[in-house]
Structures are given as structure tokens and as C-alpha cells.
């Protein structure tokens, strides 16, 4: 385990009721890297995300996040790790992380208040996170019901960002959105990737290879719980090696990658 890996999975397998759902997954993410995981429904994407969070214990293999074996943490070390907020999760449905009864701005900074971060620091981080996702201060004085789906998802991302995580795990962040909102969220994530540099790595999960290609430095293809392809986005799109990836790409009319895709 070296410190230049935000995430390292070594031969991780996960079973549900003795059925193997993830099978020998090895995957690394470097600081600042954006890795897209694509696969069809049931291929194990959400299970992979939950395993990274330490919410699912693997039957075999090891998960290291920022150098820590997340399945070995116990007691005080576990609590300290959770409090550190090193990994933050963004759900498909932003309403899972925004309280319907309070202004969006309050939901965004809720975690910081619980952690007793001083008010001036809370204000600084809130402003930085809102700017990072392109939301106006006056918009977040509203309740979640006063925002569009795309604005809500950007608020949920801001809520994760204020904790200043090393790794952001986004599970189908644009799947529930209409085309225009999807575009706004994808653009916000691309801007985030390009501005945060090596401070923030992202694991972005989707069944839609088109949106993933636009924001990811690397693409990982999951099929029936196994990684069948892992490479730089442009290479995977231009020359997919596995028949499953070839079919995925053939099913999408045009795939755009962005110029900041790093090798
Ligand atoms: N809590 C669970 N108990 C049993 N089986 C599950 C559970 N969660 C998911 N599965 C099964 O594991 C497989 C992978 O699911 P999931 O990780 O949710 O895939 P994806 O996110 O790619 O759609 C599916 O066959 C699903 O039915
Ligand atoms: Mg899923």
C-alpha cells in the first residue's frame, strides 16, 4: 500500500446469501483521478460503492482507502475514521441527503455543525462548495422542493464537498435527471475535476457510458461482478478490448470525451 493511492481494492469478492456478486475486483485510484465504473443493472456497481465505504464486508480481498484497511477498523479508530469524512457518498436520489423541511443551505453544512467546525470556517466551506457546483447563495435559501432535480443533485454534491473528502463516490448521480439537468451536473463534475487537482478523487458509477466518458480520466467496465476492462477513457472508447465493452459503445450514437482527460 503506497500513499499515492486514494483507493486500492485487492482481489475483492463479495457474496450476498452465498451468491458471488463481486468477483476478484482489483482497482486503484490515484489522488485527483476520476474513475468511471460502467455496467448494466445488476452488474454489482452499487455493491462496489458500498464496499468502498466499508458498508459491505468482503468475503475475500482487501479494501484500502487513503492507506487504511476499512474492514479492520474497530472502536475508536473506526469512529475517528468515519468522523474524518475521507469518503463521501452521493446517491442517485439527492433527496436522500437533503432534509425536505429545512433550507438546502442548512442541509449542506449540517455535517460541519455536528462536527463543531467554527462558524467562519463553515461559511468559507459553504461558499467554496456552492461555487464549485455552480449554485447561487440565494437559491439554497429555499427548501429542496423549490429546486430542480439537477440543482438538488448539485446541492447534494456540495453537501459532500464541504467535508473536504479525499474520495467522492457518486452512484448513478445523473440517472434520474432529465437531459438538461444531467448536462448541468456533468459539467459541474468536470469543472470540479479540473479545479480540485489532486485534492479530490472521484469514483463515478453509471449504466450510461456517454455521461461517464465525458467526466472520467479512466473507465472501468463491470460485467457480472467482474472487471472486464480498465483503461484511459479515450483508449477504451477508441479501442475497446472486451466484446461487452464493444457492445456498450456501439449502443451509443456519439461519445464525447473532454480535453482534460488525463492518461
Ligand atoms: N442486499 C442484497 N441482498 C441480496 N442480493 C443483493 C443485495 N443487493 C444487491 N443484490 C444483488 O446483487 C447483484 C448486484 O446488485 P447491485 O450491486 O445493486 O448492482 P447495480 O448497482 O450494478 O445494479 C444483483 O444481482 C442484486 O440483485
Ligand atoms: Mg446500482
Please explain how this structure is put together.
This protein has nine helices and ten strands. It is of the alpha/beta class. A six-stranded mixed sheet has the order 6-7-8-3-9-10, sandwiched between helices. Strands 2-1-4-5 form a four-stranded antiparallel sheet, covered by helices on one side. Helix 3 crosses helix 4. The radius of gyration is 18 Å and the shape is globular. The relative contact order is 0.17. The model has no long low-confidence stretch (mean pLDDT 92). The protein binds adenosine-5'-diphosphate (ADP) and magnesium ion (MG). Magnesium ion is lined by residues 45-46.
Count of DSSP strands: 10
Proportion of β residues? 15-25%
Number of helical stretches of at least 4 residues:
9
- C-alpha termini separation: 22 Å
Q: What is the residue-mean pLDDT, rounded to a whole number?
A: 92
Structural class: alpha/beta
Succession of helices and strands: EEEHEEHEHHHEHEHEEHH
Helix content bin: 25-40%
The low-confidence parts are none
- From the alpha-carbon coordinates, what is the Rg to the nearest angstrom? 18 Å
Mind describing the biggest β-sheet?
Answer: 6 strands, mixed
User: Strand sequence of the main sheet, in spatial order?
Assistant: 6-7-8-3-9-10
Shape: globular
The molecules bound to the chains, other than polymers, are: adenosine-5'-diphosphate, magnesium ion
Amino acid at each position: 500500500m503506497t500513499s499515492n493511492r486514494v483507493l486500492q481494492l485487492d482481489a475483492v469478492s463479495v457474496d450476498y446469501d452465498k451468491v458471488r456478486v463481486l468477483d476478484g475486483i482489483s482497482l486503484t485510484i490515484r489522488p485527483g483521478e476520476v474513475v468511471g465504473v460502467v455496467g448494466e443493472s445488476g452488474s454489482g456497481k452499487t455493491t462496489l460503492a458500498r464496499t468502498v465505504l466499508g458498508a459491505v464486508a468482503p468475503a475475500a480481498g482487501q479494501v484500502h482507502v487513503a492507506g487504511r484497511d476499512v474492514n479492520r477498523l474497530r472502536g475508536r479508530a473506526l469512529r475517528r475514521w468515519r468522523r474524518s469524512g475521507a469518503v463521501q457518498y452521493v446517491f442517485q436520489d439527492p433527496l436522500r441527503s437533503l432534509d425536505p423541511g429545512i433550507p438546502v443551505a442548512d442541509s449542506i453544512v449540517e455535517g460541519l455543525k455536528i462536527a463543531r467546525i467554527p462558524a467562519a470556517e463553515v461559511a468559507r466551506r459553504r461558499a467554496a462548495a456552492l461555487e464549485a457546483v455552480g449554485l447561487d447563495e440565494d437559491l439554497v435559501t429555499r427548501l429542496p422542493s423549490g429546486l430542480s432535480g439537477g440543482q438538488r443533485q448539485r446541492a447534494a454534491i456540495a453537501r459532500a464537498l464541504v467535508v473536504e473528502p479525499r474520495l467522492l463516490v457518486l452512484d448513478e448521480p445523473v440517472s434520474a435527471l432529465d437531459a438538461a439537468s444531467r448536462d448541468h451536473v456533468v459539467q459541474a463534475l468536470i469543472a470540479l475535476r479540473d479545479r480540485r487537482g489532486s485534492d479530490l478523487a472521484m469514483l463515478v458509477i453509471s449504466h450510461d457510458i456517454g455521461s461517464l466518458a465525458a467526466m472520467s480520466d479512466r473507465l472501468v467496465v463491470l460485467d457480472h461482478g467482474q472487471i472486464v476492462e480498465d483503461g484511459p477513457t479515450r483508449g477504451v472508447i477508441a479501442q475497446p478490448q472486451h466484446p461487452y465493452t464493444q457492445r456498450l459503445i456501439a449502443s451509443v450514437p456519439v461519445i464525447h470525451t473532454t480535453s482534460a482527460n488525463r492518461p
